Amino acid sequence: MSAVSNTTEAKTGGTPPSGLSEFWFYFSRNKGAVIGLFIFLVILVVAVFAPFVAPHNPSVQNRELLLLPPLFQEGGTWGHILGTDAVGRDILSRLIYGARFSLFIGLVVVTLSVVSGVLIGLVAGYFRGKVDTFIMRIMDIILAFPSLLLALVLVAVLGPGLLNAMIAISLVNQPHFVRLTRAAVMAEKSKDYVVGSKVAGAGTLRLMFLTILPNCLAPLIVQATLAFSSAILDAAALGFLGMGAQPPTPEWGTMLAEAREFIQRAWWVVTFPGLAILITVLAINLMGDGLRDALDPKLKRS
Amino acid sequence: MKKLTTLLAATALASLMATAAWSKTLVYCSEASPEGFDPGLYTGGQTFDATSRTAYNRLVEFKHGSTELEPGLAESWEVSADGKEYTFKLRKGVKFQTTDYFTPTRELNADDVIFSFERQYKTDNPWNKYVAGASWEYFAGMGFPDLIDHIEKVDDLTVKFVLKRPEAPFLANLGMDFASIMSKEYADKLQADGKMELLNQQPLGTGPFTFVAYQTDAAIRYKANPDYWNGKQPIDDLVFAITTDAAVRAQKLKAGECHIMAYPNAADVAELKTDPNLQVLEQEGLNVAYLAYNTLVPPFDKVEVRKALNMAVNKQAIVDAVFQGAATVAKNPIPPTMWSYNNAVEDDKYDPEAAKKMLEEAGVKDLKMKIWAMPVARPYMLNARRAAELMQADLAKIGVTAEIVSYEWAEYLKLSSAKDRDGAAILGWTGDNGDPDNFLDTLLGCDAVGGNNRAQWCNKEFDDLMTKAKETADVAERTKLYEEAQVIFKREAPWNTLDHSLVVVPMSKKVSGFKMDPLGIHRFDGVDIAE
Q1: Contact check, Cβ <8 Å, A258/B385
Q2: Reduced to 3 states, what is the DSSP secondary structure of residue B308?
Q3: Which residues from B are below 8 Å from A when comparing CB atoms?
Q4: Of A161, A197, B255, B499, which cross-links B327 as Cys (Cβ 3.0–4.6 Å)?
Q5: For residue B276, is it within any domain?
Q6: pTM of the entire structure?
Q7: Which residues form the signal peptide (chain B) (predicted)?
């Protein structure tokens, strides 16, 4: 309670805060979000500098050291802090390189689905009528399928591989963006400022992209963060089912699938990739929560 | 009222326990659902476990735990001097099983035998196409359609098979699952009722166990056949608990939910061995895993290239990483436990340096190839993907870039048979009848190109030896021919022979009388279980 009163004081005190500091002010009120952001940044740094951080090459097989336990267990060594897998590859290095793939997948999938989803949603919401009905029914059909199942079918058609998995997941994710954009566009379109700029002579494209779209971005950003984490999860699931990244790519889901049989004999081979997925997805989701707090005007208290 | 319920419950429990004490039930955790219940139609080992080895018998049987033949439904047989006529004398008084759905009125006779075979090759037989897509794959795979001239009934208990040419492995082939003897009387009734498809759902034969019920993908129930010609089984009920995940099967076995399990994970075996309630049987399997190059596609049509690739792969590493040591490195296409195994053959030595040089000399540079990895675990190759990854790393050392591809299992089998297949395929074979012909000719003969011969390799010299060995009845003579064939095989290197695996069957210590079967079949006749 005191925190709230303090912040109210701070806010009413000085000059109105700038956009960024206002964002940070609301974002940082959510402790979980800050932790999530921190973890995400760490993963990002590790992924970017993987060749310098990783102690070993992720695909070199050390045939003398199969299934070496992690450091803190009997028999573990400093050479392989998290142990080695069934063909003697360093698990830590594979996880570090795997972070690259996971983030890359998230990024590509989100970019693809946001760009296509926003475009389609904008068209549907702006023009309404038959175009709208047509687009939305297609999106309904896509949404009618369980997303992972649809992604599986698409990958089965396109052939297994990381690229095809990404395309499939973006396609499955995209209807969410279409719906969100369409709803926001419909709400904004009838507002005075839009009518105003229309009267002032703005063309259709200008209205769509420069007038309306920037005002619809807040919910899209939040959705994009959540889609980012679900894309990582879906890619891991596809990898787990043998439809995603192909060996020797150190993708987390694939690592998990390959290690399944060792759950009794060598727990570390299964546990660490699973933990990596869990932590990353959790961090991003927490971050998404904070973003919503900061960007959604309805949740703002002043 | 409450008291009454308690009493009732107690009585129910007591009566349950009483039946448990009275009937002996053996639970087997099997690895997959049967494809169907007509063994002639399918090729999967799980199907044979659930049909031909429980509900049916054959004219000749393999001795329990070996590949030697013993009389089955045929008491004795004679082979004509030219090797083309086989006359079988049937056992007298063999009763078919009595079930809820059918009560037989007559005993086994020659009509049943003729029906069992004719339905598999006579296209005008109404049973030839009784299920959609019936292909009689094994019957065709063993070359029977071209081999059998006709089958005749001499009298009620005598059947004569007339062949078009002499075929030494013929008797052994008759011990195989597709040659199970069905009841013609039952089939006739199903046909009259217009319910022919039931033959593939409710089996009825002469075997040690009578089929009771099948819950799809969950369990199959049998009871001991009280009229079995070889005496009633020591156990009363047999249950197949279908559990597709090997780790779950192991857990169930440890928890006592089943008594015997099929195909454990190699990684779990050591732990199962330490469990005081379990015993683990091990036996060298009658199997081989291989990497078959497509010898029709350049540059793999060159022997030097295939040899070089063979030399580049460290097979011991595969045995260690995939089987945790529970396998041996293979050098011949037949397993060491099989007669005529040529131990004098020398394997291509693991030598990346020499391999690299050899490739250069053959004029092959920057070779890119695909390695096909099976998507499922089979006894001969528990994890083909991992094996492929190991090969990928080994090949990278001699400058060959390998890409690993995989397809759904049925698709994999189909696509890998294609003559224009791009890449080398990992596959293997478990013997069906203990005859070397079943490996060498079935997998490497010219007839099998575009089918089981995944290397698409047709070598005149090798094929002539196969034909000659088939037509010779003398085992010593045949041994010589097969030994020679193995030398040619190694010289030409259509495959990289990977491993022969140990087959492991963990079971509860209460189980007695279970014998490991070299053919990879799980048989429950003669098995007993202690209270």
Answers
A1: yes
A2: helix
A3: 246-247, 250, 265-268, 270-271, 314, 317, 320-322, 375, 383, 385-386, 388-390, 392-393, 403-406
A4: B499
A5: no
A6: 0.75
A7: 1-20
